[in-house]
Amino acid sequence: MTTAVRSHVREFIQKSLVSKDDRAPLDDAESLFLSGRLDSLAVTRLVVFLEQSFGVDFGANPFDLDSLDSVALICEYAAVNGR
Fold first, then answer.
1. Where are the domains of the chain?
2. Helix H segments across 1-83?
3. Lowest CB count within 10 Å: 16, 46, 55, 70, which one?
4. CATH code that applies to domain 3-81
5. Integer Cα distance of 72 and 64 in angstroms
6. Residue 43 Rama label (left phi>0; alpha psi -120 to 50; beta)
């Protein structure tokens, strides 16, 4: 994972958390969805973000929530499935 990808993903996730009034520290390995920090609407926004930012085609690359549950996993998914 490049630093630029990680920074872009962290910025997106932090904005999503702040929109829910969650300003707690964020570790790259920390659960986001299964822990309840982010909800199903955030998953939808994340999918759109990954499609637009990294060219991920979710039609060709199915996923389960476990594969997108942390900053580290999101970055890995984008690196493997993006342009």
1. 3-81
2. 3-19, 40-54, 71-81
3. 55
4. 1.10.1200
5. 15
6. alpha
